[in-house]
Amino acid sequence: MSYANQSQTLNITGQQYQGLLERVLFSTLIGMPCCVFLFINGTMLFTLRSKPVFRETSRYILLYNLLFADTVQLALSQLLYIFASCRIMLTYPVCGVLVMFTKLSNDISPLTLVLMSLERYVAVCYPLRHATIITIRNTGVAIIVVWAISLLNVFTRVLLLLNYPFEDLESLQTTDVCSSTTMLLEPITNNYDKAYTYFLFVSATVAIISSYTGVMVAARSASTDKASAHKARNTLLLHLVQLGLSLLSTMHNSIIQSLSTVLQRLVIVRIKNVFYVFIYILPRCLSSLIYGLRDQTIRPVLLYHLCCRMSLSCSTKG
């Protein structure tokens, strides 16, 4: 019996060591690209404030708003990932604040994508009226509306959380790692979260597809700039991809919960790591890659700053 117990203890210890080693490996492999993209996003944000042409053009102002939300989302997601990897349990108030800021930045991204799609639609379909419709003032008002809607959603979530009887808990310490699922303490909060998410992304999808359809129709017109319409069409398709990946990030908790009933915990952890890379990190980096590489105005300035203000020739070395 003692030999069997010793073997079982060694087996458990080996599994724990393997799990720790795997967590360290995944944390390193995920943390490094995340830090790289945080640097790229930060450089992109600095680039968009470095020249008057970026500060005084509506689509660059919208891009700055999108990049800011994506960068905050990426940083907060990485912070929560580190807490989860290190098995750090937060209190409900601290976890709630982090989750609410994450929700705020996550809501701003799809709404800003809608504004950017509408701006491209007006630029292609109404080129002569673009300067009068898409003004700096109107862009600022639109961004304020986006933030107001997102803040209203966060405020509603806070009110729903305040109805939970926290005073009945033995401790405010969470029993699981901090995540958006941890703060779904009551069914009404979960139902509201699903309803708002579905409404937001259905509305955003309809708006972007409608813009894409309008651009396609305008592209067939003889008076439309074919090159501009083609570029706008590709941009709208990329916005749809970004929106789809963002939608997956909101649905990933439901997917994990469904898989957890049929798969082992270690397999679930590996799947969560893969999901984290492809539906949390990747969508937050697409904006910098899309506009940083495709936009002829941004690209030389971005490369200049990425090369630490050295000669642009460093971008071609290696």
Walkthrough of the structure:
- By secondary structure, this protein is an all-alpha fold.
- The chain is built from ten helices and no strands.
- It has helices at 2-47, 52-55, 58-85, 92-125, 130-133, 136-162, 187-219, 226-259, 265-294, 298-306.
- Helix 1 runs antiparallel to helix 3, helix 3 (58-85) runs antiparallel to helix 9 and helix 4 runs parallel beside helix 7 (187-219).
- The chain is globular.
- Residues 1-18 and 310-318 have low confidence and may be disordered.
- This is Odorant receptor 131-2-like.
- The chain crosses the membrane at residues 24-48, 60-84, 140-162, 195-215, 236-255, 275-293.
- Residues 40-291 form the G-protein coupled receptors family 1 profile domain.
- GO terms for molecular function: G protein-coupled receptor activity; odorant binding; olfactory receptor activity.
- Its main location: membrane.
Question: What are the main properties of this structure?
Answer:
single chain, 318 residues, mainly alpha, 10 helices, disordered C terminus
